[in-house]
Every structure is written in C-alpha cells, then in structure tokens.
Amino acid sequence: MRLLSIKRRLRVRAGWRVGGPCVSLSGFRVKTYHTEPPPVPLIVPLPFPSLRPAGFEQELPVQPHYAPSLHLVQNRSLPSHVTNLKFEQTAAGSPGFGFSPSFPVLSSKGLECIHSILCAAKAPQFAALWQSDDRTPLCARGLAYVSSFIRDLNACETLRRWVSTLAGEDLIPHSLPMNYSQINVGRPGVGAPIDAWHLDSVPYVLVVLLTPAPKSGGEFQAVRLNKDAAHNYLAARAASKRGTPDDNDMIESVKFPGAGWGILMRGEEVMHRVTAVRGPDVGERISMVLSYQPRVDRGTSNRLATYVADADAEWGFARHAAWRAVSMLDPILKGDCGIKGELARSELLERMAKVEKELKEAREVLEGKKDDAIVYGFDTLA
User: Fold this and answer.
1) Could you tell me the mean pLDDT of each successive run of 10 residues in the chain, 382 residues long?
2) What is each CA distance from 351 to 131, 157, 328, in whole angstroms?
3) pTM of the complete model
C-alpha cells in the first residue's frame, strides 16, 4: 500500500536546462531535465540548378563520365597529421582543423580528363567562363554549368566523405554553383605571388594542383596566427616597409609535390597565399579549387563583393540567403523545436530573429546599401 501511495504521488515534469544531466527527487516529485537543446539540424545540400545564366547555356562537347574509382587516387589514406587553428600538429580528424599537408587527390586519368575539359572550355562560345582582375590574372568560374564531369566531381560522395574525415566534421559542397571547381591560372616570371595574402569567402577549400610542381615557388603559405592577428601582423609589416616575409617563424609553408596533389584548408580562418613561381622555362601554374561548408552551419559563408563579376552573382547570393533561412526555419516546420517550455520559446524567437537579420542584411547588400567586402589594411599584392 505504501508503494502504491508513492506511485500515486509521483509527478514527472520535463523541460530544458543548461547544466549537467539530473534527476531530482523532492517530495516524491521527479524532475527530469534534458541538458541540451535539440541538435542543430543538418543542412541539406542544394541541388545543382537546372537553369543556366547567360553565356553558360551550352554543355561542353563530348566529355568523360566521372567515376571516383577511375579519376581519384586509389589509395585514399589520410595524411599522418594536420595543422589546427592553434597552429599545432595534430591527428587528422581532430577538432579545430586548420589545414592539411599536401596529399594525392587525382589520378593521372583524372588529371587528363580535367585538362581535356579546360582545353574545350577555351572555345569562343565558352568565353563567359573566364575572368581576370588585379589579383588573379586568369581564372575560370562556372565550369559546372557546362560540364557534367565537374558537376559530378564536386558532388562526389566518395570525395566528400574523404575530406570530411580529414576535417573532422561533415562537409558538403558550397551552395554557390560558380564555386564548383574554380580554375586559377598563375603566370610565371611576374614576380608577384600567384595568389596574394587573403581570407576566403567560403569555410573550406580543397586546392588541387593541375600542372607539374615548379622547382622554385608556387608554395602554399599561411600566417601562424588567428585571422585578426595575422591581418594586423601583415599590416604592421607593410607599414614598416619591410615587406611580407617568405620564411620565418610566423610563416608556415606547404609544398605541392606534383600534379594531382591537394591541400584542404579552412580558408575563411587562415590567412594564406601562394608564392611566386620562379625559374627558367617555367610554364603556367594551374590549380583547381573545390569549395565546401560544414553541414552544421556556422555563418553566412558568402560575400557578394567576392563574386560580383559572376554572371549569376546576385541570384547566387540571394539563393544562398534563402537556403540558410529555410534551413533555420525547417526545425520549426517539422516540430523539432518550439513545442514545449520557455527555452523552446526562446529558441523559436532566436531562430526567427536570426532569419530576419540575415535576410535584411542580404537585401541591403543587394540594394547597394551595405558593402560586404573584406577590407585589408595592407597591399595584398605586395
């Protein structure tokens, strides 16, 4: 009878509380607390758009069918170590990934196929692919609009899982179609870096060398400081007119041993560049950049100013903002948050406020009322 009385007096109340997991007994009332809010929903990768911008309507002529077993290296082992954002060497897949050493990515057949695609892309009807500015003498953007091989390479599940394991978090292709396999062409003998000091406008990049490694130069370099401190360091060097260093304790260099080798990097967090190519009889240095972002979103990871020359720039920027808004609101639609408790109500309001803020900022950028460009306090071309 006593046990029955206790059962009748038992009350269970569930809610959210930050703290350790606990079950408290007080006057036979049991309070069960979940210690964390529901997990952040995983972002669903955007499908590649079916419509194409002006100048990208035609598909490249006969091109190979992409197959990871044929076009990626067969031995897809992880590097022995990576460098984290504290610039310490740690095991691949550890938290706080910064950048990897170089490792083989493309097979010889994969390199052959990409070079054949680039050769076909030089035809006059594909002139819209090619861009140039002060920082980048020549690059191709939007290859995925005209090449099924490039689309499939960037959407490749084998490659996605590989770089995710290396980074220590689940990665997906970046939302901007133009970012699928950007091709950078570096001209030798000009004295300037192939790519100047900068931060990327995407969270992760896989940079793959497509041409033989030069005997001198063409190395990836990173400043061994967090991005704000790195910016201040380079600005101070520029102000003192000592120039930017090539080799000292503040700079870490990574070499590409040859064509097909790549480096995975947190490009939006690590200040980096590619050094000038030097030496006689050196040809163009061509690299391919695949862009990724975490499946658990941490920010907007997109800047209109970076891609303003793209044919789909405004649409791609708006699409990215809309996609993020839908991702943040999706748990409300599915009932994964906001049903019970004060913290659930708080999460509802927080998600809606964040969506409102981001869409308002995106609209202001599109209207020209706000500039989202990264401003450097030093000459990035020095």
Assistant:
1) 39 33 35 39 80 93 93 93 96 95 97 97 96 86 97 97 96 93 83 83 95 87 93 85 62 94 96 83 86 81 82 92 87 73 77 92 94 74 52
2) 38, 30, 6
3) 0.84
